[in-house]
Amino acid sequence: MKAALLSLLLASLASLASLASLASATGVAPLFDSDEILTPKRLIAAPRPGIARANPSGDAAIIGARTYSFEGDSFDSVLYHLDLKDPGKERVIVTRNASDAFWLSDTHVAFVRSSDNRLVVHDLAQDDGGKEPVEGATFPAPIDTIQVARHEDRLTLVFSAQVYGDGDLYKVKEHDDSQAVAQWKRVKVFDDVMIRHWDTWLYPGKRSQLFAVDLDPAADGWSFKGEIRNLLKGTALESPVPPFGDEGDYDVNGTHAVWTARDPSVHAAWHTKQNIYLAPLDGTAAPTELTHGKHGATSSPRFSQDGQKIVWLQMDIDGFESDRRKIAIYEADKTLHLEGQDLSKKPFWDLSPTTVSFSPDGKSLLGIVENKEQDVIYRLDLGQQNIRPDFVTKKGGAASFEALADGSLLVTASSIRGPSEAWLLRNGNDQFENSLGAQHGEAIKLTDFAEEGGLSKLDLGPEPEQFSYPGSRGRDAHGWIIKPPGYDVKKAYPLAVLIHGGPEGSWANSWSTRWNPLVFAAQGFFVITLDPAGSTGFGQAYQEEILNHWGSTPFEDIRLGTKHILKRFSETLDSDRVVAAGASYGGYMINWINGHNEDGLFKGLVCHDGVFSTLSTWYSTDELYFPEHEFGGVPWENDHGYQRFSPERFVSQWHTPQLIVAGGQDFRLPETEGISAFNALKRRGVDARLVYFPDENHWVRMPKNSLKWHEEVLGWLIKYSSAKEVETPLFVNQGRVP
Length: 738
Fold this sequence. Notes:
The chain starts with a helix and ends in a 19-residue tail after the last helix. The strands form nine sheets. The chain has an eight-stranded mixed beta sheet with strand order 32-33-35-34-36-37-38-39, sandwiched between helices. The protein is α+β, with helices and mostly antiparallel strands. It folds into four domains: about 40-45 and about 60-140, no CATH class; about 140-345, no CATH class; about 350-450; about 460-730, Rossmann fold (3-Layer(aba) Sandwich), CATH 3.40.50. It is built from 14 helices and 39 strands.
């Protein structure tokens, strides 16, 4: 037995040596074999910052970060205090027990302890780093999001929590422990769809709702004053809207809450319509609907500082989740101004903002919008005759911002080359350009998580480069170039083509802990991330080219982009070593490529949670409105729309080796899509490998699973982009090196 193990170990070491010698000749680095590059393990263990939050006066902020430890198989959480009056002052650690917190006052920071749902309050005015926090009131059930409303001397917590059909927060535990729920967990019975969403089976009648409770900041602890009030009680409304709703789905002023929720009169499985609702925090009146008529989803409702106006984003088309978001303003006199009607005579841009809010003086709007692969902050001056956007930042991945009373902006933003950092953008007349591309004033970096995580010491390769190229339909298509560390024009590199999901999405200039192109480049690949037809940030017309054309226009853009790069870098790239990988729609495209790879352009493929059959996907997915809009109706009325671009129809032409990733908790594209593709490949005699994660959803998020995902995906791409047949150590003993 020992001799067999020794033989296997020697074979593994020989394989490692063979791969290392291959690296110098081919430009492929040994898998995870350097202290100077961004390895998967370093990516997973890097700090994961939250968003910076300013206190009411705007002179201080907090930001948290989580860091994973492989040794302890756990996340460490740290919350930092930032001095905005003196930004150069060293940060202070508030607590190592939480990374997500909120301000109760200018000096009091709180979080809700998940183990017992208890409010924990830190007094920063007295805390010298050793003072124990005060334990306050206990919530009767777990809460998900929270905001603070301030009015005169009253402090009100507005939060969301999951409740059953009675809407009673105090009875949640009773329901959880009931025989009815226990039996439902064993045997689920449904009379209507949707029965599950994203990665969760839906208990009938259970939903997220908003609650309010007044808080008493007494000297002996922070306690609740009076009963907790359900602001949505007696309705079928749900907010935040699952599966990705968060505190951005609602807002509070001193006396009211405003929120977005699905229209309860239409079916959520095949409608996207969401309405805006308003209700008093004291619970004395039922919610009032502010929207009216036919429309699609709404998002980002926000009060003006004086409480006299509300702004939100609204789509026109019910059932189209990627319709352009328009700005709507509601005034106290019940006048509704909608972009393209009253705000201006015609739309002032062809972009779709993701957030919107009022400036502190109410004279302009601020928000985040995706513009040509950059998530930037925009400003709209409401006093202009013809409204035109002014971009406060021009590059980077803005995740959030707060407009402070002095005109400054507290910004949280990342980039391809680093995780989120907190910035203070101050007004001024100096012209400059920093990593956010801000054009006026002073930009002060408040944190350096990249340095703390050891990322700044790594060789991340040359700066990523945006490029455009002649695409299909006679217009340009777009993408990024990410070159490997130590890039040398005299070497021959393999090309890795990464394809995003959505399909209405893009490769933005932001950090990712999942599909990070720097990690692929660190393994010796010349990487391109392509934004073909259907991608966001280039105008609605470009985005909608994909509708009813999943396998045509975007596919042409991807092939044209790949060939463009091969020609442009012909002295550096080896056209015989091109591989591609994608997830979700990107996984669909991988399956489509395999049936249309007649010229052998791609030598190896990776499909993560991709569509195998567009027809079967309608019958198994959670959100039916998505395929119905993408493919033009329901299958029994438009069979051609579904079959036309279904990868399943072209299995007879599959011949390219392919790795397939599937998740057991993926209810968006169930595991059977991956198993079907795997069966087809193996039955045809094509080299294939199935990597199945029973506990993962559409994404692989658990750290150790993520490490395995990177090993499998990168190993497969390396295997099929090598200059000659070399078995990497990754494939010894089914992926385990003794």
